[in-house]
Design goal:
The complex is a heterodimer of chains A (298) and B (273). With 298 residues, chain A is mainly α. Chain A is 76% helix and 3% strand. Chain A has helices spanning 2-42, 60-67, 69-101, 107-119, 122-133, 139-146, 162-187, 192-200, 205-233, 237-242, 254-263, 268-297, and strands at 45-48, 53-56. In chain B, helix 3 crosses helix 12. By secondary structure, chain B is an all-alpha fold. Classes of the chains: A mainly alpha (298), B mainly alpha (273). The interface between A and B is large, with 92 and 91 residues. Chain A: It is found in: Cell membrane. Chain A: Keywords: Cell membrane, Membrane, Transmembrane, Transmembrane helix, Transport. Chain A: This is ABC transporter permease subunit. Chain A: Belongs to the binding-protein-dependent transport system permease family.
Chain lengths: 298, 273
């Protein structure tokens, strides 16, 4: 009797739970699942953007994509950008977190200043950096010339490899605060006793970093690296607004290629194929990350 | 002692170097046009002027863009956070078929690149006759904001002790009554934090706005200000820097008064997962 009543209550709760999740599921299906499925479907068509008329071409888009140099070139550019900016973010982020973990003057002000680039709009970041990079009146060229580092103003965004280096650096500047905050939060939970013990054993600051801090940070670093790798890989705004993929196509990553194909070259079907191919590349990272978070939940 | 001072100076030198572009943005926006092209450049403006701000507000479409951005971000935030609060409560505290795979789907879409969704979304919104409306952007922004908010709120919700809810239920409260009286007050800091992040994400979004809206009346700030750069005959940097400062004002307010909520959100969703 009691058991029966409980299942009735449980059933009632399950219904309530489903009612609460219903809006989420509806919106998810309408704006995420349906577009995702139709992106895959569209990649099998040849569609002209202005008229949106198209015909079925099957796997032709993929055949063309894999045979064309542009996809592979963009993938390569994408990997260079991701690895470059990610390593700088991690290195600089850990360094900065260690500094901010110390008791420096006006620590909370310093933290806010460091955090700010992460929260401002990419549009603002790009405008500011394009002004700093300005070849004639930019402060960067002026400072570097005054310091005797260069004799002639440098073209930061219009030539290679400068453009790639600039994009990587601005990316690192914009996104390293994420690493700082995440690492800082973890640093605060490392028990002091570990350091005490190491000090008694005669370990210097460097040995303490490699023997205590780094192993303690390992787990959080793995998560940060995966998450940032995914986010950097799909970055569009920053690169598009800084260089537009140029000079020519030397900083054109996959998201920029998708955009160009769809809205400049007007090949929606081909663009969808590029997007799906890009997602396939990312899927490896995404599954790794989801696995990792799943482990931690369990 | 000297080592401590040296360490502090070094630390602050790095902090200031990181913050320099933002400092330079403010300085440039306050300089008269003539001082901008001086060599060597003046570090602090010799003459401080607010003419660029005045021109921005009176001669350009900036105010329209600003208004659009406010409407867009507020509506997106309210819609997304309301749906996600109910959704997160359901995912964390109820048991039913499909719950696990739903949580998996949320995480998956949280990582999904926008360029994959943008083509079908564009076709869908054009098909519905919604292109060039703020409403179309609200729909598009939901695609990244909802998974994000759900993921964040899910971990906030998981942090609330289950005993509290059980106690209320034992005392005879209904499930929704317990939600309103026990869960919501406990969740409030998490909701604020999620709302702030969602607002900032929508405020800063560029790609969807670029693709879905191309009339000046409905453009939000990101594409609007960028358009000022592209369409002007000779680039007026101080005007653009003034626009950048004004665009960052909401963020500065959040930073000044609500920063603890931001750091909390970081811990909850961004990293811990």
């Amino acid at each position: 009797m009691i058991k029966n009543k409980q299942t009735k209550l449980e059933r009632h709760y399950a219904t309530l739970g489903m009612m609460l999740i219903a809006p989420t599921v509806l919106v998810f299906c309408a704006v995420i699942v349906y577009p995702l499925v139709s992106a895959i479907y569209l990649s099998l068509f040849d569609i002209y953007t202005p008229t949106l008329q198209g015909e079925w071409v099957g796997l032709d888009n993929y055949r063309e994509l894999l045979g064309k140099g542009e996809f592979w070139a963009s993938l390569r550019t994408n990997l260079i950008w991701t690895v470059g900016t990610l390593s700088l973010q991690i290195l600089f982020g850990i360094g900065m977190a260690l500094v901010l973990h110390q008791n420096i003057w006006f620590r909370s002000l310093a933290r806010s200043l460091i955090l700010f680039p992460y929260f401002i709009s990419t549009v603002v970041a790009v405008l500011v950096w394009r002004w700093l990079f300005n070849d004639l009146y930019g402060i960067l060229n002026h400072l570097m010339m005054a310091a005797g580092l260069i004799d002639m103003p440098v073209d930061y965004l219009g030539s290679m490899p400068n453009a790639m280096i600039s994009v990587i650096l601005v990316g690192a500047w914009k996104y390293f605060p994420f690493v700082v905050i995440a690492v800082l939060a973890r640093l605060q939970t490392i028990p002091d006793s570990l350091y005490e013990a190491a000090r008694i054993d005669g370990a210097g600051p460097v040995a303490r970093f490699f023997d205590i801090t780094l192993p303690q940070l390992r787990d959080v670093l793995v998560v940060i690296i995966m998450l940032r790798a995914i986010w950097d890989f799909k970055e569009f705004d920053l690169i598009f607004l800084l260089t537009g993929g140029g000079p020519v196509t030397s900083t054109q990553t996959l998201p920029l290629l998708v955009y160009k194909e769809a809205f400049s070259l007007n090949n929606m079907g081909m663009a969808a194929a590029y997007a799906v191919a890009m997602m396939a590349v990312m899927l490896v990272f995404m599954i790794l990350y989801i696995r990792k978070t799943g482990e931690k939940d369990a | 002692m000297i080592r401590r001072v040296l360490f502090n100076l070094m630390a602050w030198a790095i902090v200031l170097a990181v913050a320099f572009p933002l400092f330079w943005m403010v300085v440039t926006s306050l300089k008269p046009q003539s001082e901008l092209f001086r060599r060597p450049p003046t570090i602090l403006p010799e003459v401080t002027t607010f003419e660029h701000y005045w021109r921005l507000l009176s001669e350009t479409n900036f105010l329209t863009y600003f208004q659009n951005s406010v409407v867009l971000s507020v509506v997106t935030t309210v819609v997304v956070v309301s749906i996600a609060t109910l959704g997160a409560y359901s995912i964390v505290r109820f048991k039913y078929w499909g719950r696990e795979s739903l949580a998996f789907l949320v995480l998956f879409t949280y990582l999904l690149p926008s360029v994959v969704l943008i083509i079908p979304l564009y076709l869908m919104l054009v098909g519905l006759g919604l292109s060039n409306t703020i409403f179309s952007l609200v729909i598009a922004y939901t695609t990244f904001a909802l998974p994000y908010a759900l993921w964040l709120l899910r971990s906030f919700m998981a942090g609330i002790p289950e005993d509290l809810e059980s106690a209320a239920l034992v005392d005879g409260a209904s499930r929704m009554g317990a939600f309103r009286d026990v869960i919501l007050p406990q969740l409030l800091p998490g909701i604020i934090s999620t709302a702030l992040f969602t607002f900032i994400l929508s405020w800063n979004e560029y790609l969807y706005a670029l693709v879905l809206v191309n009339s000046d009346n409905t453009r939000p700030l990101t594409t609007g200000v960028m358009n000022m750069l592209i369409s002007s005959f000779n680039v007026e940097w101080s005007l653009l820097m003034a626009a950048s400062v004004m665009m960052s004002v909401p963020l500065i307010i959040v930073f000044a008064f609500l920063q603890s909520y931001l750091t909390r959100g970081f811990g909850a969703g961004g990293v811990k997962g």
